[in-house]
Structure formats: structure tokens, C-alpha cells
């Protein structure tokens, strides 16, 4: 497998983790899900992310899931694996394991204990040292980690930690951050790295306009992200916005704290991608009113997509 590098672009879908009714890993659904994402036009997959319920998996389950996904893809698409951990030793151990399986790279979010710019830089310098030659994605998601990473800190990491090849940008509001980072690389002040964006794709057209290379996030219709990124890369900005707008009401609904992932898995189950929409405990379940909302949004979305020929 080719290793992840600074030229990565497109759509790396953050995959859900399918569970059976009894809460066990559903490996049959994993196969079907991988096929679905590939057929939808994904450039790569990212597993063991926060919305992949990684903290609810045992170490053994994390390895079983990773091996299953990588073997199913058989080198056709790159796989990035989340290896965030409180300590560098378990991070290094998991990274070595998944890279040995054929992963293209790993993703690392900062621990919540980091408060200052120097602490953040020192942490990622340590990550680079611990991971050796393994390329990694810096996950910048302050809404969840409570760690705000200023552009100047990201630039310092990029300058001094060569194995940091991608920023997963999930700051909110964060469009200005993309502009600052791209201006710095355009001027030759810092190495240009890949920027893929998250937050369920809620700001994807604007992020592409600021210089992002694509998306690394989840949504129950990955076709939206593939369509938006493809249209933008082809120079058809208006088409990108038309596609985005057709899916926006459902994407917005899916971004609710608490029930967002349950919504995503409900729709994926409805589409036949996974057998059940179950979240592993502790996790919320949709109410009948939630389901009615989703069904209404799906019906309206289908009509709008037909209208625009998407």
C-alpha cells in the first residue's frame, strides 16, 4: 500500500463501525459497508475515528476491524486508522500493528490536557518521534478535544515534524484558518500539506473554495461529498453548491450532538449498507419523532436530487 502523503485529495470517508443486535462486531456488514463506500466514489477510508465508536472497542476488536477493512479493499483504496491515545506507547503499538496490516497512515488527535502552544507543539513532536516513519494526520477538532490549535502552531509542526502530512480540519468557525495556512504555503513559508475537512461536510463548498483538498468525514450519503469535491475539482463551483444544497437539510440534522451518529447509522441501515443501526452501549436510540423527521428529510431530498439531476 502506498503511504499517505502531502498530495492526498478527494474524499476519505470516516467509516461507522457496524454492530449486531447483541453489540458484537458485525463483520459481514463491515464487508458490505466497505464495498458501499468504494462504489460511492470514496478516495480512501478512515476507521477508528470518534464517530466510528473507537473508544467503545477493545484493543483486539480494533485490530480485527482494521484487518477486515484492509483485506476487503485489497490495496484498491488507502486506509487511515485513528490511533489517538492518552500515552505515546499505546499509540505507537497500535500504529505499528495497523501499518503492518497495510494501513496508509494514522490519525492523531491531541489530548484534552494540552493548553499552551508550546505544549501542543511538544506533543506532536513527540508523536512524530514515537511513530518513526509512519505518516500521520493531525486532527484539529477543538469542539471535541477542547484544544485550540492556532495556525502558527500547525505551521511549526509542519516545519519541524516531516511525517505530519495532512491536517484534518474541523475547527468551527475555521474557514479563516484554511486561508492562513494556504497563504503560508503559497508564499513558500511552510511545506504544503493536504487539508481534508470534517464536521459532516457542513461547510465543504466554502472549505474547497479556501483551498482544502477534499473531505475526511462521515455522512450517510457519501455521494454528496464525492459530488461536491468532484465538481469543485472540475471547476464547476455552481454545480458543487447545487449538489451540496440538495443534501444540506439531512446533513444539518445529522450534526446534532447526541443523536447524530444514530441518525447516520439509521439511514445506512435503511439503505442496506449495515444490518442494524445499533450504537454500542452507552449510546442513544432514535425516538419515533426523530425517525419521522429523518423520513421526511429523505423524501424531500430525493425529490430535490431528481430536480437537479444528481
Describe this entry's structure for a reader.
- It comes from Devosia nitrariae.
- It holds the Pfam family DHDPS.
- This is Dihydrodipicolinate synthase family protein.
- Belongs to the DapA family.
- The chain has helices at residues 27-39, 59-73, 88-101, 117-131, 142-145, 151-160, 175-186, 204-210, 222-233, 237-254, 260-270, 288-308, and strands at 10-14, 44-47, 79-82, 105-108, 136-140, 164-169, 194-197, 214-217.
- It has one domain (10-244): Alpha-Beta Barrel (TIM Barrel).
- Helix 3 links the parallel strand 3 and strand 4 (105-108).
- The chain contains twelve helices and eight strands.
- It is of the alpha/beta class and 310 residues long.
CATH class descriptor name:
Alpha Beta
Helical percentage: 40-55%
Order of SSEs: EHEHEHEHEHHEHEHEHHHH
With strands numbered from the N-terminus, the spatial order across the biggest sheet is 1-2-3-4-5-6-7-8
Shape category: globular
* Cα-based radius of gyration, to the nearest Å: 19 Å
Question: What's the CATH topology label?
Answer: TIM Barrel
Please identify which CATH superfamily we are dealing with.
Aldolase class I
Main sheet summary: 8 strands, parallel, barrel
- What number of domains? 1
Q: What is the number of beta strands?
A: 8
SSE class: alpha/beta
Keywords: Lyase
Protein name: Dihydrodipicolinate synthase family protein
Family: Belongs to the DapA family.
Amino acid at each position: 500500500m502506498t503511504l499517505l502523503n502531502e498530495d492526498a485529495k478527494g474524499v476519505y470517508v470516516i467509516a461507522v463501525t457496524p454492530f449486531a443486535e447483541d453489540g458484537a462486531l458485525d463483520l459481514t456488514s463491515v464487508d458490505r459497508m466497505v464495498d458501499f463506500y468504494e462504489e460511492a466514489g470514496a478516495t480512501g477510508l478512515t476507521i477508528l475515528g470518534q464517530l466510528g465508536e473507537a473508544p467503545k472497542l477493545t484493543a483486539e476488536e480494533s485490530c480485527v476491524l482494521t484487518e477486515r477493512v484492509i483485506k476487503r479493499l485489497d490495496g484498491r483504496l488507502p486506509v487511515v486508522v485513528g490511533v489517538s491515545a492518552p500515552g505515546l506507547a499505546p499509540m505507537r503499538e497500535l500504529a505499528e500493528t495497523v501499518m503492518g496490516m497495510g494501513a496508509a497512515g494514522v490519525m492523531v488527535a491531541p489530548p484534552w490536557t494540552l493548553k499552551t502552544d508550546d505544549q501542543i507543539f511538544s506533543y506532536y513532536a513527540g508523536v512524530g518521534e514515537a511513530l518513526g516513519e509512519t505518516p500521520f494526520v493531525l486532527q484539529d477538532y477543538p469542539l471535541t478535544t477542547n484544544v485550540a490549535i492556532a495556525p502558527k502552531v500547525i505551521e511549526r509542526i509542519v516545519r519541524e515534524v516531516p511525517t505530519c502530512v495532512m491536517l484534518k480540519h474541523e475547527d468551527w468557525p475555521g474557514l479563516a484558518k484554511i486561508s492562513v495556512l494556504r497563504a503560508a504555503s503559497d508564499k513558500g513559508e511552510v511545506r504544503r500539506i493536504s487539508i481534508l475537512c470534517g464536521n459532516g461536510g457542513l461547510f465543504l463548498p466554502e472549505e474547497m473554495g479556501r483551498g482544502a483538498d477534499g473531505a475526511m468525514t462521515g455522512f450517510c450519503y457519501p455521494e454528496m461529498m464525492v459530488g461536491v469535491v468532484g465538481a469543485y475539482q472540475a471547476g464547476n463551483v455552481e454545480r458543487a453548491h447545487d449538489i451540496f444544497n440538495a443534501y444540506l437539510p439531512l446533513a444539518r440534522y445529522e450534526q446534532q450532538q447526541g443523536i447524530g451518529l444514530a441518525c447516520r447509522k439509521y439511514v445506512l441501515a435503511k439503505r442496506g449498507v449495515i444490518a442494524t443501526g445499533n450504537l454500542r452501549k452507552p449510546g442513544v436510540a432514535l425516538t419515533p419523532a426523530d425517525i419521522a423527521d429523518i423520513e421526511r428529510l429523505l423524501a424531500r431530498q430525493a425529490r430535490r436530487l431528481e430536480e437537479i439531476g444528481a
